[in-house]
Amino acid sequence: MRFFEYEAREIIKRAGIPVTDYGFTTDAAEAREIAQRIGGPTVIKSQVLTGGRMKAGGVKFADTPEEAEAHARDILALEINGHAPRGVLVDPRAEVEQEYYAGVVWDGTRKQPVMIFSPVGGIDIEQVAEEQPDKVGRRHFSNILPLSDFQAKEVVASTGVTGAALNRLVPIVKRLASLFVENDMILAEINPLGRLADGSFVALDAHMDIENEARGRHSRLLAELGVGEEETRQAREATPFELAGEQVDAMDHRGVAGNVTEFDGNLGLVIGAGGGSLTLFDAVRAHGGKPANYCEIGGNPSVAKACGLAKLVLQKPGVERIAVMMSIVSNTRVDIVARGVIKACLELGYDPAEKIAIFRIPGAWEEEGFKILERYGVDYADRSVSLNEAARRAVEKIEGAPV
Amino acid sequence: MSILIDADTTFIVQGITGREAVNLTRECLDYGVGAKVVGGVTPGRLGREVHGVPVFDTVAQAVAHNGAPIYGSVVTVPPAFTKDAVFEAIENGIELIVIVTERIPRRDVAEMVELATLRDARIIGPNCLGIIVPDVIKMGGIGGPAKNAAQAYTPGSIGVISRSGGMTTEMSSTLSAAGLGQSTAVSIGGDAIIGSTYAELMPLFEADEQTEGIVIYTEPGGRMEAELARWVTENRSRLPIVAFMAGRFMDEMPGMSFGHAGTIVEGKEDTASEKIARLAQAGITVAERIEDIPEMIRAKIVERAPA
Amino acid sequence: MRADATFIAVEVDDAAAADPELARRLTEACPVDIFAQTGDGGLDIVELNLDECVLCRLCLDAVESDPTHPVKVIKLYDDGAILA
Fold first, then answer.
1. Predicted local confidence at residue A274, as pLDDT
2. B10-304 is classed CATH 3.40.50.261
3. All domains of chain A, ordered by start, with CATH?
4. In angstroms, what is the C-alpha Rg of chain A?
5. Probe site for chain C from A254, A305, A333, A335 (most C CB atoms < 10 A)
6. Exposed e or buried b for every residue in A384-394, given b needs 16+ CB within 10 A?
7. Helix (H, G, I), strand (E, B) or coil at A267
8. How far apart are CA B3 and CA A396, in angstroms?
């Protein structure tokens, strides 16, 4: 889960890394007060979880508190890439002599965190790595041995930085690495990290992303930052259809019937499991089908849950038919899913034989499952029909369906 | 032969009294020649039995009871306890650990993997279904009940490596139906950091005389495929590889997570299209459809065979 | 089209259903809560959970000692086949 800049700065501050005397607000009049307190030129920055903020007019410079208020009012009303801002950050405009970059990420190949440092900051680090590779230092560090200052020193020094700057940067980079590990981050980045006229360093912007699976062990930090438990902060906000999918999955603790993502097509998908769903979604599209949704069944869900998911998809506006398809199951049961989807059709007053374009789930308890499907006249396929072929048949039925 | 495990492999199940673990134990005991499940561990349950397998409080007790080192462990304990369970296994001389548990934070995974490396142990997973040597042994829930597993997996010459547990079975079943059996199939797990990647398993398959070709299932997210492409190029692998890439649609939806925890497009390099290009450069054929895989791998094996 | 949306039926002999010990055993045995015990110890069948039946036979095992076979699990989708 990504943090807003004002939250990321707070995390950095708590780790003992110097930040500017900024203020966060959701109110333009308060932005003026903050600018007054700062006394001097300020930068007003939109707090949104999307890139391209500067280009979109979400960052503006103010010389007076009045100007700060006016900019804050504009920015608070400005949607960027469909995201409404959470608020604005009012930041003193620092006299920066040079901008640096410091970041920590995971390296999935080495399976270790890696510190990244560059004396060229303020722009995308990937661009620097491409254009001036010698200006980007990387240093992996152990997950179980103690983290020490020398590691930060090595990565800074590897980029040619020496003198007082080196000694001042070491504790900052080391603290950033510590906070990355301690807070289960998957990204912790200060960019730019500014060097001021007096030689001191200050964080001017920060990006932090905490691993979702670890949120539970940082509930205190999240509560202190005011992050709600319901906040997922996905790339786009969950739609009501997707939220309803989460409710279906939360009905009981047996298996999974959820991870619903909304699309705007006419073929409803009741598919699984993780890899099977990805494969099937691709296959439906490859045959020209228009999926109404993505979802995942797995881990042997209850009949009620499979039924709930199928009902949700069947009731989605524009859905003509559903395709019930999974890769060969060994834990999830064919008969249980068959009962669930047939029940869903019947309870909504549909004929399962009409509404279910195809049922392709081979594997555990398929003999029982196929008996059920036969009784209700549902078109089904066993493992001799590939995922791709099943998807093709489903799409064909939609195209042939009366509009 | 096979890789990682064979008919003589001994292993324990940590968390053996959990609902899924009870099933998994039954399945492993029933499959092939019958796995040598020499014990189970659940703290506080010393003295119980699960399908005749004795339960202990600690791994050390299981090792003592066995009277000889134990080779493997299947770990199926809740995410908050997995790291400790894996450390316990490693420190008691276990060499191969299959982690079934999902939703483990990657810091914990990284710590487990680093300790394993220090102790010359190997981790498969987390978030995986384990390893199967057709008709011989399975270690983990892979393939499900013995009867179902026997239907999908047949002995042969193809090594299968997959980021998806279910797709390991789907692809193996497709190979079996086309008369291509498997030497060993490994579900490596769908997380961002895993114990054994494609490239890390390749040397084992490379050294296995039975294996003549490799089939992999892959997804967007991460750099594991780039690592494989590099390995294949640098080591001039004798084994032809066919890959299947699912989740191509995700390229249009950066930042959205689908399927497994590690399946998310975060940058240019981890898109499906970029990975397909990289794999192709290394001579790895990427199939559009699973049903095309058997003929593709067969053709590549023939092509490589000495005239 | 077939409009019946029920897949499983469970029948318990009246005499057996009135036996609190048997009711307890059935309630404990069923993993999907098809059986429940009423306030007076008698047996109640939870209609809502019938279709969650996983055909595990645990209820049949629980009354195995009774030679009258007082519990029947019926697969309505299979022409009323009785789970043996």
1. 87
2. yes
3. 1-20+95-235 (3.30.470.20), 21-93 (3.30.1490.20), 240-399 (3.40.50.261)
4. 27
5. A335
6. ebbbbbbbbbb
7. strand
8. 43
Helix H or strand E encompassing A187:
strand A185-196
C-alpha distances out from residue A287 to A393, A400, B233, Å: 9, 14, 34
C1 and A353 within 8 Å at the Cβ level: the answer is: yes
Chain A neighbors of C2, CB-CB under 8 A: 352, 375-377
Beta carbons of A208 and A227 less than 8 angstroms apart: no
Residue B284 CB: number of other CB atoms within 10 A?
A: 24
Inter-chain Cβ pairs, chain A and chain B, closer than 8 A: 161
Residue located via tokens 């003549």: B212
Active site residue B65: no
Cα A121-A145-B222 angle, rounded to 5 deg:
55
Which one, of A398, A200, A186, lies nearest residue A291 by Cα?
A398
Query: pLDDT at residue C34 above 70?
Result: yes
Output the pLDDT for position A403: 46
The domains located in chain C, with CATH, are 8-82 (3.30.70.20)
Picking from B111, B193, B197, the nearest residue to A144 by CB comes out as B111
Cβ–Cβ under 8 Å, residues A101 and A190? yes
Strand, helix or coil for residue B212: coil
What secondary structure does DSSP assign to C14-49, as a single string?
HHHHT-HHHHHHHHHH-TT--EEE-TTS-EEE-GGG
Chain C neighbours (≥3 Cβ pairs under 8 A) are: A
CA A173/CA A182 separation, integer angstroms: 14
- pLDDT value of residue B307: 59
Which residue of B lies nearest to A331 if distances are taken between CA atoms?
B144
Between positions 316 and 355 of A, the ones with CB within 8 A of B are 326-331
Per-residue pLDDT, averaged over C33-62, amounts to: 93
Structural domain boundaries in chain B: 10-304
- Residue B101 contacts residue B73 (beta carbons within 8 Å): no
**pLDDT given for residue B26 in this prediction:** 95
List per-block mean pLDDT (blocks of 10 residues) for chain A, which spans 403 residues.
Answer: 96 97 96 96 95 91 96 96 93 94 95 97 91 96 96 98 97 98 97 96 96 93 91 83 94 90 96 95 97 95 96 97 96 96 97 97 96 97 97 90 50
**Beta carbons of C77 and A353 less than 8 Å apart:** no
**DSSP assignment of B11-63, as one string?**
EEEETTTSHHHHHHHHHHHHSTT--EEEEEE-TT-TT-EETTEEEESSHHHHH
Q: Hey, what are B98's tokens?
A: 């299959």
Q: Hey, is A156 helix, strand or coil? A: helix
Mean pLDDT of each 10-residue bin along chain B, 307 residues long: 96 93 95 98 95 97 98 96 98 98 95 98 97 98 95 98 97 98 97 97 98 97 94 95 97 87 81 95 96 98 82
3-state class percentages of chain A: helix first, strand second, coil last, to nearest 5: 40, 25, 35
Of A268, A259, A261, residue with least CA distance to A239: A261
Residues 274-313 of A with CB under 8 A from C: 302-304
Closest to A203 in 3D by CA, of A74, A355, A292, A99: A99
How far apart are the C-alpha atoms of B175 and B1, rounded to whole Å? Answer: 18
The pLDDT assigned to A120 comes to 96
